[in-house]
Every structure is written in structure tokens, then in C-alpha cells.
Known about the structure:
Elements: E1 56-63, E2 68-77, E3 92-93, E4 100-106, E5 109-117, E6 122-131, E7 135-142, E8 150-156, E9 161-164, E10 170-175, E11 188-194, E12 207-209, E13 216-221, E14 228-234, E15 239-245, E16 248-253, E17 260-267, E18 273-280
Parallel strand pairs: 2-5
Antiparallel strand pairs: 1-2, 1-7, 3-5, 4-5, 4-6, 6-11, 7-10, 8-9, 8-11, 12-13, 13-16, 14-15, 14-17, 17-18
Amino acid sequence: LTNAGGLTNGQYIASGQAFFVQKLAAGADNLSFTEAHKAAQTQAGTYRTTTTWNNLVRVGMKTATDAHLDEIVIRFADEAGVNNTSVGTLDAISINEGAQKISSVKAKNSLAIQTRAANFTTDVVDLNVISTTTGSFKLLFTEFENFTGATIYLVDNYTNTTQKVNDNPVYNFDINTAIPATQAAGRFSVQFVKAITPQAIVITGIKMYPNPANKNLTVELPITEGKYTLRITDVIGKQVYQNQLAGGVQAINISKLAQGNYVVEITDAKGNRMVEKLVKQ
């Protein structure tokens, strides 16, 4: 076997060890072992130990009554060969063919374990959640406590809901087999966002209220000769609003924004700025 994932002697199957075989093409085939395939080398271990997976999150799919159905792992590593666009040796294809299942998506592949590049500011991983029957379910996030410097969000594109996983690791949802949008790829994504330290001088004297806000956001800006630029972005950095504002009290209509967390950035004519989180109800 080829050496998978950088394991020392990882190409050797130990006596009594279980393993999976992935075919490269569809159709019937045979797998045969002979005496000539036996090796005298000592198996150095079946588990990878060179990487400590601190930046990891486990996502479990459960019934509404907490019966375990399936789970996946999303993890980040700073190692050669790890990327976000193709399946590598540190990824594992999902082989669950049950009635309810969850996987993450990379390069259109459904994965049980997905390993991504650790050097990111924002990153988004789509989830594929399937049920052959209508019902109520839960997503449970665990093992993310040691994630370095990142805020984790679950985005439900069907209900337009964003939930901060760090504060609430359980998400309840329904699947209706008559409504395709309630399941499969496209409904859920997990967003990882690292804080950015502003490089410019921070503007003082700005007030922004209410927060959380529903329809309107009021901003009080110091009176200056130039105008301010106000930008609102979602948690993955996509701009959803921008406008030029004069000093004084300004009203911003945010009624068309979906519920969730946003970042408000106000920049003056000299490039100084203020950044604040906004919660849209």
C-alpha cells in the first residue's frame, strides 16, 4: 500500500488491523493477498502522532431526543500538502450510507474528516446534512475549546439564522423531505473568523445604537470637514452595506439585512477607523 498521511511504516497493515479500501473507478473488482505480500517490518503504529490537533471542531448530528446519528471532524494544520481545494491524505471520505448522515464538503467531495490550511483570516466549510425521513434534529459542536483565536459560527441559509458556536454549541433544526432546501449541501455552513487588529488610529467619540438592532441603526459621528465611510460586512467579510456620511446623527436602515452578526467599520477622511460588532435581530 502507498504511505498514507505521512505515517512511519504506514503502508504496512498490522495483524488483526481493520482498514478501508477506496476504488478509483466504479464496477466490480477483486482484492487478493498472497504470501509474497507479507512483510517482516515492524508496524510502528496505526495512529498519527506528529500533529496535535488543537484547532479542531467535531460536529455531531443527533435526533431531537439526543440519539447519536453521525458526526464529522473539521480540523486545521500547517503542513505540506494540506489545502482547501482538493482532497488529500489527511482527509477522509464519508462512507455513511445510512438514513441520516452529515458530511463536510471539499471540492464536491463529502468528507467525514476534513483538514484545512491553518493560515486563514476567515474560512467557510459547507455541510451536507441528509435525512430520508421528515423529523427534528440537532447539530452538536464539541472539542472546539482549544481553537486558537477564532470565533466559530453556524449559518443556516434556510432560516437565515447565524449562531455563535462558542456561546451555544447546540443547534435545533427540522428536515422536511418534501422541501429540498431543508437538507443537503447549501443549507448549513461553518464559518471560522479570526480577529484582526486595526492598524490605523481608532476614532473616538462615535456612538452606535441600539445594538442589537432590528430596523434602524443610529450613528453619532463627530463633526469634521470630511465625510465618513460606513461599511457593514458579514462574519466572512462580505460587504452588505456602504455609504458616505457627514458628521452628526445619522440613521441607517438595516431592515433588509438577515438576522445574525455583522461588523460595522467607520473610516474618516484621514484613514482612521472604528470597528464594532453589530447584532441584527
